[in-house]
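This section describes the prediction task in plain terms. A model, or a person checking by hand, is given the sequence of a single protein chain and must write out its three-dimensional structure as a string of tokens. No templates, partner chains or ligands are provided. The sample shown here is typical of the held-out split.
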Amino acid sequence: MSTTANGNDSKKFKGDIRGPGAPSRVIHIRKLPNDVTETEVISLGLPFGDATNLLMLKAKNQAFLEMNSEEAAQNMVGYYSTVMPFIRNHHVYVQFSNHKELKTDNSPNQERAQAALRALSAAHVDPAAAAPSTVLRVVVENLVYPVNLDALCQIFSRFGTVLRIIVFTKNSQFQALLQYPDGVSAQSAKLSLDGQNIYNGCCTLRISFSKLTSLNVKYNNEKSRDFTRPDLPSGDSQPVMEHPAMATAFTPGIISASPYAGATHAFPPTFTIQQAVSSPYPGLTVPALPGALASLSLPGATRLGFPHIPAGHCVLLVSNLNPERVTPHCLFILFGVYGDVMRVKILFNKKENALVQMSDSTQAQLAMSHLNGQRLHGKPLRITLSKHTSVQLPREGHEDQGLTKDYSNSPLHRFKKPGSKNYSNIFPPSATLHLSNIPPSVVEDDLKLLFSSSGAAVKAFKFFQKDHKMALIQMGSVEEAIESLIEFHNHDLGENHHLRVSFSKSSI
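The expected answer:
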């Protein structure tokens, strides 16, 4: 078996016709779009480490990317086995190559590849001259879906430690100032994120270096945060914009008025977080990497590609279900946390598989990225994009044992109203649940008894101080919380009050 891929015989080079096999530093990437650039291919690998070589086989729509370590390559293949990589709306395929290293020639194509490698590799960034500032100014254009401080922290913390952040509205645009400890992190974040969309087709990031050298944060709240100072008061949630240099931080003309080129009217979120992790600063939590990345040992300054679901695709294939316990209703309630579920079909001959149709591709992406890998009925869910564009209902007179359900007119949809506040309260599955619509006669013990009635452990409970219609309840595990949400969302508490249950970002 050959262990070296040579660039000088690329015309007769066949690539690797095989499934993913033994780990190698060399990654084989297939089904690339015809007009793919070297930079786009390298960007697939950058979140996981530096790329050390590249061989483009454009005639075959393939490429070989050599990473700086086998560990980086393993992380890359592992990640893209659970999150579909896309380049220009083309689903591309990533697997280990048979080859252990790449040897390339000096052809013009290779010179272009080497130039792209040098431009993108973090190893070639001179830390001393990496960035004019450690503070970035971020403007979010075309703000169709809400974006908040926590979302920006999640996105930008992939490139280094976010020390401080302030969000505010200026000239009717949502903006932020964000400080890293070093210029390399700021440079990496700017290079990777400028012009990217948080959601496909909207919420476009425009990033420039700020003239400020540091941020002065006075309060830790939803408008400002200093991760090095957990002792700061929460204040009154007003944006803190008193830095004397602030006026000079905004130079006109940096931001283009048009949204990101190639935008389509479908809004898959690119950034999702599975759970918060403890920060080195007591009292503050910082976002974790997304589910598929949580188990990976990624380098400090990571850069993520932007996989998303193409417009019009809103059907998910859910597999590894427990066939003894799963029902269309349970999938409707669970997936309904992240969007309005239109139809659910449990497959007749393979009851561990189901199709879930969301109302749009954004919601499909939200559900997939938050629920993939989460445990339901003792088994981790596996969620991918289905090739189907809709779920077919059984023909009249053909009974399918109630395995297909149409929920398109359900009163339980959380996102029917445009601009619903539920859009800004979407959180990953967590052990703590948020309860609302609690009638005055229901007390703490009633709710604890209800949630423990299914055999789950209730660890803690707390009513909201100012509003006893709402409470937090902490279950014994995330899996117990998921099953409790399914069982008790819309539970009739009497007095015409149906309990509303969702995942909480807070803990008790």
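For orientation: Residues 433 and 504 are 5 Å apart (CA to CA).
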